[in-house]
Amino acid sequence: MASARITCINKSGGYHDNPHEAISHYGWVDINGATGKSNRADMVNWIESGNSAYVTDSYGNKVYCMIKTSRNGNKFLQTESDGKPTNNLLELPECQ
């Protein structure tokens, strides 16, 4: 099982009506220091394959991503901390 820290996001065409679904790409760094950028579907598939992704919160804690499904059937990532959904992904900077 591999793990990666998500470091930045890109939103699809500035679409913000459903902010989590609007994330089109995730920038990441893995435990070996390799970096990359994956689209939403590839990142969902990677996690569904048994890997994990996380965001470092403002306190330096790892907050792991879970897969959610919208009412339209679109899968996306969202973080959960202390049993409450949070916006850790949405607070990340835009990937360059």
How do the strands and helices of this protein lay out in sequence?
Blueprint: E1 3-11, H1 19-22, E2 23-30, E3 35-39, H2 40-48, E4 52-56, E5 62-69, E6 75-81, E7 84-86
Parallel strand pairs: 1-4
Antiparallel strand pairs: 1-2, 2-3, 4-5, 5-6, 6-7
Q: How many beta strands in the DSSP annotation?
A: 7
| Main sheet: strands, sense, barrel | 7 strands, mixed
| Tally of contiguous helical segments | 2
Number of domains: 1
Q: Which overall shape is indicated by the principal axes computed on the Cα atoms?
A: globular
Instruction: Supply Rg.
Output: 12 Å
Low-confidence stretches: none
Overall SS class: mainly beta
Q: Helicity, in percent?
A: 10-25%
In round numbers, the mean pLDDT is 86
Strand content: over 45%
How would you write the strand order of the largest sheet?
3-2-1-4-5-6-7
Order of helices and strands: EHEEHEEEE
Structural features, described:
- The structure is a single chain.
- The chain is mainly beta and 96 residues long.
- It has one domain (3-86).
- The chain is 14% helix and 47% strand.
- It has helices spanning 19-22, 40-48; strands spanning 3-11, 23-30, 35-39, 52-56, 62-69, 75-81, 84-86.
- A 7-stranded mixed sheet has the order 3-2-1-4-5-6-7.
- The model has no long low-confidence stretch (mean pLDDT 86).
